Amino acid sequence: MPRTRRAPLRKAFESRLNADPTPPMPTLAVIVAAGKSTRMNSDVPKVLHEVCGRLLIDYVLDAARDAGATRLVVVVGHKAEMVQDALAAQKDVTFALQGDQLGTGHAVMMCEPQLRSHDGPVLVLAGDTPLLKEESLRGLVDDLRKHNAAAVIGTAVTDANVGLGRIVRDAGGNFQRIVEQRDATEAEQAIREINTGCFAFDCQRLLHALTKIRPDNAQSQYYLTDCPAVLLAEGDTVIASNRFDVHEAIGVNTRAQLAEVHRTIQHETMNRLMAAGVTIVDPAQTYIDPRAKIGRDTIVYPFTTITGEVTIGENCHIGPHAALAGPQEIPDGETIAPFTCRHLE
Predict the structure, then answer these.
(1) Closest CA to 342 of 310, 320, 303, 316
(2) Is residue 304 in some structural domain?
(3) CB–CB of 272/293 below 8 Å?
(4) Beta carbons of 212 and 91 less than 8 angstroms apart
(5) CA–CA gap between residue 212 and residue 321 (Å, rounded)
(6) 232, 123: one domain
(7) Which of 137-141, 161-165, 309-313 is the least confident region?
(8) Structural element, H or E, at residue 305
């Protein structure tokens, strides 16, 4: 990628800090989705695997939109055409091609044409993390703006930190660096705060940092995690922000992890519906699509499956052993008898 001259970018960055208050610049999100499905043992690109009736990447795209992203750039690589075809109907999505997988930093480099024209926050996310929440991503962007930062690193605290990048802070609690497991000292390995892989950057400072990183590592790859260190060394503000629950950053790399994410989404869906006044007699023996809408005082009996965009009114009785597939609507007060199957015609 062409080198970006430092002085004009820094001058533009600093001029924005000193400018009169203006409406916040829109957010652009880069979703890295170029990887293979090696550990999934699949011919299907990893981000196109489904969980609870939707593609993995659809959850990430929606979380970014809900957090304020108005432009979405998906980095494709392995079986790029399949990913592009699957997302073709989403008009706010454009694509960048990473022909060779040379690391996360390299993936973002491939987005330079879209980034060059953007003057505002950039979220960088992984396309295989369907549990990301809007409020966590919005928090990263808020931190970027509040602190006039060049970069914000999303972090989480966990005891299960083996294999994850640790967040090293100074005595005052300020971010110093990210240290990987293999490079960490014994004291650093005990650090419980980890890098989630979710970032917010000032776009033009990100472009500058990308020209400075080098593949000087055992894998000969360009790491996005090197960009905060570059910016910090040049005097920019870099923040590590503990905004995430560790489960949000779980990437789906295996079928077992896919099943784990499925259970999490189902648990959240059931709890949300029950809190809204729906009786689910046995959540462990029921499947409900997170897109379904169900009215108060409706009872859903065991061994019922509700898939797709199904809208069920109030005071209904569904099942047991019923199967509903959307889109369809069930009016108030209706009973869906046991062993009934209603699918989209």
Answers:
(1) 310
(2) yes
(3) no
(4) no
(5) 59
(6) yes
(7) 161-165
(8) strand 305-307
**Residue 23 burial (CB count, 10 A):** 5
| Bridge pairing between strands 54-55 and 50-51 | antiparallel
Extract the tokens encoding 17: 């800090």
| 281 assigned to some structural domain | yes
- 5: burial class by Cβ within 10 Å (0-12, 13-18, 19+)? exposed
pLDDT of res. 36: 85
The residue among 340, 275, 330, 324 whose CA lies nearest residue 53 is 324
Answer yes or no: are the C-beta atoms of 163 and 183 closer than 8 Å.
no
The range of the structural domain enclosing residue 329 comes to 276-342
Question: Burial, 316: exposed, middle or buried (Cβ in 10 Å; 0-12, 13-18, 19+)?
Answer: buried
Catalytic amino acids?
39
Over pLDDT 90: what percentage of the chain? Answer: 83
Q: How many domains would you assign to the chain?
A: 2
- Return the percent helix, strand and coil in the chain, to nearest 5: 30, 25, 45
Give the C-alpha separation, 194 to 67, whole Å: 22
Tell me the per-residue pLDDT of 290-341, one tens digit each, with 9 for 90 and over.
999 999 999 999 999 999 999 999 999 999 999 999 999 999 999 999 999 9
Strand partners, 72: 29, 93
Same domain, 43 and 175: yes
Give 76-121 pLDDT, tens digit per residue: 999 999 999 999 999 999 999 999 989 999 999 999 999 999 999 9
Q: How far apart are the C-alpha atoms of 43 and 51, rounded to whole Å?
A: 17
Flag whether pLDDT at 23 surpasses 70.
Answer: no
